[in-house]
Amino acid sequence: MKVALGFDHAGVKRKALVIGCLKKLGIDYEDYGTYTEESCNYAEYGAKVAEAVAEKRADKGILVCGTGIGMSIVANKVPGIRCAHCTDVFSAKATRQHNDANILAMGERITDEETMKGIIEAFFTTEFEGGRHEARIAKITETENKYLKKI
Ligand code: RB5
C-alpha cells in the first residue's frame, strides 16, 4: 500500500510523527508537501493528495492542517474521494468499517500527538465491512455523479 501525504504550514509539524507511524505499520508513502513552515494554502496540498488517490497513484491519503477541516473540505471535492476528518480513534475505525474512507484528515491544533498516533493506527489497520454499507456508499457515489454531469 502507498499513502499520499499532505500538510500545510500548521500541519507540517506533525510530518515526522505521521511518517513514523506509517513506518511502524510497514506502509510506503509519498510526500506531496509542504516542506517548510512558511505560510501556504492548505487547499493546494489537500487537492494534490486527493488527486493522487483518485488517479490511483496512491491507495490512501493522510492530510494534516491546523484543524484538518479545510483539507478535508477540498479533498471531498475530488470525485471518488471519501475523506474523513477524525479527532478520535473510534471515528477513525468506524469510518474505515462503514464509509470505506480513503483519506484521513487531522488537525495539529486540535489533536494531541498520542491521539493522532492512535487514529493513524486505527485507520490503517481496519478493513471496510461491506455488506449493508455498500448501498450507502453507492448512494454517495450516485450523488457525486449526479452533480458531475452538470459540470
Ligand atoms: C491555517 O492557518 C489554517 O487555516 C489551516 O491550517 C486549516 O486549519 C484550515 O482549515
List keywords for this structure.
five-stranded parallel β-sheet, alpha/beta, binds D-ribose, about 150 residues, 6 helices, Ribose 5-phosphate Isomerase B, Chain: A
Describe it.
- The protein has 151 residues and is of the alpha/beta class.
- It has a single domain (2-148), classed as Sugar-phosphate isomerase, RpiB/LacA/LacB (Ribose 5-phosphate Isomerase B, Chain: A, 3-Layer(aba) Sandwich), CATH 3.40.1400.
- It is 48% helix and 16% strand.
- It contains six helices and five strands; from the N terminus they run E-H-E-H-E-H-E-H-E-H-H.
- It has helices at 15-25, 42-54, 69-75, 89-99, 113-125, 132-148; strands spanning 2-7, 28-31, 60-65, 83-85, 103-107.
- Strands 2-1-3-5-4 form a five-stranded parallel sheet, with helices on both faces.
- Helix 1 (15-25) runs parallel beside helix 5 (113-125), helix 2 packs across helix 3 (69-75) and helix 4 packs parallel to helix 5 (113-125).
- The longest helix is centred in the C-terminal third of the chain and has 17 residues, at 132-148.
- It starts with a strand and ends with a helix.
- The mean pLDDT is 97.
- Bound molecules: D-ribose.
- D-ribose (RB5) is lined by residues 8, 10, 42, 65-67, 69-70.
